[in-house]
Amino acid sequence: GDSVTQMEGPVTLSEEAFLTINCTYTATGYPSLFWYVQYPGEGLQLLLKATKADDKGSNKGFEATYRKETTSFHLEKGSVQVSDSAVYFCALKQGAQKLVFGQGTRLTINP
Amino acid sequence: DAMVIQNPRYQVTQFGKPVTLSCSQTLNHNVMYWYQQKSSQAPKLLFHYYDKDFNNEADTPDNFQSRRPNTSFCFLDIRSPGLGDAAMYLCATSRDPTDTQYFGPGTRLTVL
Asked: Which one of A34, A45, A101 has the shortest CB-CB distance to B43?
């Protein structure tokens, strides 16, 4: 079945560092891809999404590009802030099938 | 702002005492989902409603039930909570089953 594999965490960075969280997927068709963020004690917030190959999703300084050739959707941010500390989930969805999540990556940003 | 609301945010119940969690939405979405999320894990889908049609995941225990009395509200009933049911419960909605899901803030359930 479909699956999502994320970079293992936890990831710890200093403020203003460059962030990459890797995400690769396995799917038989052409899924939509998502990044959700979960702040401590909160629900999931949609961070960005891409629905077809070469689409770039972006929001709040975060970006991810749907790469069909490498089956990847890596999350990047040029300069992280302490407020970006959270758990990040990569996910895929094919049509009406259920949302498939990666295991989540915990990110901590130190001042 | 259109949104997904969950009440209460924190719920404490006793072992075996029935509990109901509530979700409401102002998005007028047709699909409402319930997820269970245990510590440091990804959310796990329990079931969803597409309009009035209930869709249960095969591995959801019978102890978990749901009701959707109207478009805006959906309830999660846990008939006899066990210690293993302590978790964050997330409600999500989407316009239709193929569309993006939007999550509420969650209800943290503690079972004593």
From this structure: A101
A7 — pLDDT class (breaks 50, 70, 90): confident
Closest-approach residue (CA) in chain A for B96: A96
Predicted confidence band at A28 (pLDDT cuts at 50, 70, 90)?
confident
CA B38, CA A54: separation in Å to the nearest integer?
34
Per the CB < 8 Å rule, is A96 touching B40? no
- Each residue of A6-33: b (16+ CB within 10 Å) or e? bbebebebeeeeebebbbbbebeeebbb
List CB contacts (< 8 A) between A106 and chain B: 40
